[in-house]
Design a protein that fits this description.
0% strand; 97 residues; globular; mainly alpha
């Protein structure tokens, strides 16, 4: 296992822990970390969706905003690393090339 894979596994474990503790700010930080280490942040979307569906009825409006924001962020952050690669190289297809 490479360093990036080990770090990604740690970030996923902390993400799951943060969701179980309803620590949504920490969960967002873990999503950002995942987006910068491995292109797997979109894989967190089903986890976030299930968490949101299970918690929706008993959550406050603030928690609902956090859960919705986390789900949207997981989709948007998928574009972060390809965007960084494009900015650094000047080629927008650098990530795929």
């Amino acid at each position: 296992m490479s360093g990036a894979e080990g770090l990604a596994l740690l970030l996923i474990m902390v993400l799951v822990w943060a969701l179980s503790r309803h620590s949504y700010g920490l969960a967002l930080a873990m999503l950002l970390g995942l987006a910068l280490t491995r292109p797997i942040v979109i894989a967190a979307a089903p986890l976030l969706l299930v968490h949101g569906l299970l918690r929706w009825r008993t959550s406050t409006s603030r928690e609902r905003c956090w859960m919705t924001g986390l789900l949207v962020s997981s989709g948007v952050l998928v574009l972060l690393w390809p965007g960084v690669a494009g900015l650094v190289t000047g080629r927008w297809d650098a990530y795929l090339a």
